[in-house]
Design brief:
The protein has six helices and 14 strands. It has 211 residues and is α/β, with parallel strands linked by helices. It has a single domain (2-208), classed as Rossmann fold (3-Layer(aba) Sandwich). α1 (13-26) packs across α6.
Length: 211
């Protein structure tokens, strides 16, 4: 089994690749590669899309990359398991509203909007550890419970058009989307590779997931 972490010059590839390779080795889940090669993406069994920075810049970088069409075909046509991380998750939405309205991949019915906490003392960006609140059962959450915490660094969140795609959220002066999922796709707003035991658990769940 091959897991491809997509390199489109917009993600934290080093720590993510180390975490995925470690879990793949521990659970005999094949190999992990970081790649910007469309042929590798096309034949990969699982796909991971990281993302750091602003939504429009990440979207433009992905569109300009050689892997964009291969990624869309792998997820939309071949139904390969997909994991979006941070802005990689946000790109799954229909639209992003950071700086300017920007079309997303349209895989999740939602818009990416700035976090607006109800409590004035809560700072933006939302940075640090926060407790997950599970909303819906999913294989990616096996062994995970409400109250387990993950590491966040973001100023924008995915506001969903319906609850069907919401798997987990956190409270940060209001509900902030943490995990979404639909069909063979999952997205995590936090960084699982930086979220200690619980993040590694979700990475291993993704590597073992058979939708």
């Amino acid at each position: 089994m091959l897991t491809a972490i997509i390199d489109y010059e917009s993600g934290n590839l080093h720590s993510a690749s180390k975490a995925f390779a470690r879990m793949a080795s521990e659970y005999d889940a094949g190999s992990v590669v970081v790649t910007d090669d469309a042929d590798v993406v096309a034949r990969a069994d699982r796909l991971v899309l990281p993302g750091d920075g602003a939504f429009p810049a990440c979207r433009q970088a992905l569109l300009a990359s050689d892997v964009y069409e291969a990624l869309c075909e792998a997820v939309e046509v071949k139904a390969r398991p997909f994991l979006g991380i941070c802005v990689g998750m946000q790109l799954m939405a229909a639209e992003g509203l950071e700086y300017e309205p920007t079309k997303g991949l349209g895989w999740i019915n939602g818009k990416v909007q700035r976090i607006t906490p109800s409590e004035s003392q809560l700072k933006i960006p939302h940075m640090g550890w926060n407790d997950l609140i599970l909303h819906k059962d999913h294989p990616i959450l096996s062994g995970v419970s409400s109250g387990d915490h993950a590491y966040f660094v973001h100023s924008y969140q995915m506001c969903l058009g319906e609850d069907d795609s919401l798997l987990a959220y956190v409270d940060y002066g209001g509900q902030v989307t943490a995990i979404v999922g639909r069909d063979t796709m999952v997205g995590m707003q936090f960084h699982p590779e930086k979220s200690a035991r619980i993040g590694l658990k979700m990475i291993s769940n993704f590597l073992k997931w058979k939708p």
